[in-house]
Specification:
alpha/beta; two-stranded antiparallel sheet; 11 strands
Amino acid sequence: MGFHGEITKIVLDRAYGYLDKDPDENLPKLMALVDKVVPADQYVGQRNMFRKIIADKDGNWYKLIKSFWTDIDDDVRKALFQNFIVNANFKYADRRIEARKKYNCNIPWAILMDPTSACNLHCTGCWAAEYGNRLNMSLETLDSIIKQGKELGICMYIYSGGEPLVRKADIIKLCEMHPDCQFLSFTNGTLIDEKFADDMLRVKNFLPAISVEGFEEATDFRRGQGTFQKVAKAMEILKRKKLPFGVSCCYTSKNVDVIGSEAYYDWMVDMGAKFCWFFTYMPVGNEAVPELMATADQRAFMYQQVRAFRKTKPLFTLDFWNDGEYVKGCIAGGRAYLHINANGDIEPCAFIHYSDCNVKDKTLLEAFQSPLFMAYHDGQPFNQNHLRPCPLLDNPGALAGMVDRSGAHSTDLQSPEDVHALTDKCRDKAEKWAVKADELWQKSHGTEK
């Protein structure tokens, strides 16, 4: 049994039992167990951070951890610990590591996939809004993707769309078919009702990340009148039934002041959210609205606000672009994740709609070894300043070069977008962000770039 297998065995046999009996007393014991079996040079940063968290019982991070024992159903919490902590990060890790070495390509930690292009909303600037119910992957296809992924050590699956919960029955069925996997869905939240929440309680391995654009005015401006109140109702149901959920926020030039405000953070915590993923608006698609792109100053504002509130609010946050320094650049192209759209096209990223493979005629492994994905593998990181991670938004020409060399095509079946035209839409923002990002990088990393 290798390192990951050994630590998994200990976690499985002892860790959760320790925590469930008395989290306050046994969190330090869990750390002591890890120290006994994990080599001193492994996970150094994470272990030091965890020690700091458990030493400060009045701190926001400790409060967040403890809230899983007060706010979350016991069986759901146990399944989340098993699937997200143990399986995704330890039990299956050896398979991923071995596959990366054997095949010399990226093997992702998670797969993002679209069950359908259908959506019950029509949000301003959303590429999915134009597709309607035209594209769907069958239950059998989704199941095949998960089975292939598990063979390679992937047990984290995320749904996007379209609106994934249009396919509620199939999503719950997949949770039942793969109880050792953790499932998460980006969702507008309007289709979450009492029955679906009860299904979540039954399967235990599904988490929603509900998309919100700010408070009522900003959310309804982009997502339609009455959407905010439907979202608030969904959150009330989930909180009442002790189900964990998070929030997904797209910050734009129109809502960044709200998204980055303390009042908005407090609202998310009060509603019961345990995590928030921040995204910045990308002008993907010929019908996109470039005016919604955040300015360099607005992106820097979010950089500062997310880091500041991490120190004070009991909410786990991720900024998909601005946190590139913590993961050493771009995580797309299978480095940590990839995207499969509702037509089966295997794309490097949810925001990069170009592909040279489809699940209908290629296996996942064949896709990871394809010219486009190998271009990502060989090109990452795209910038040594990891505050400029993206080959589209932050490094003009990087994506276009990879698409041209690989022969990848636009996956927009309605209105294919030339990659050079897409690059041009982002160029001005990229150049202005480069100046701001280099200033921020130098402040936190000295002269290193």
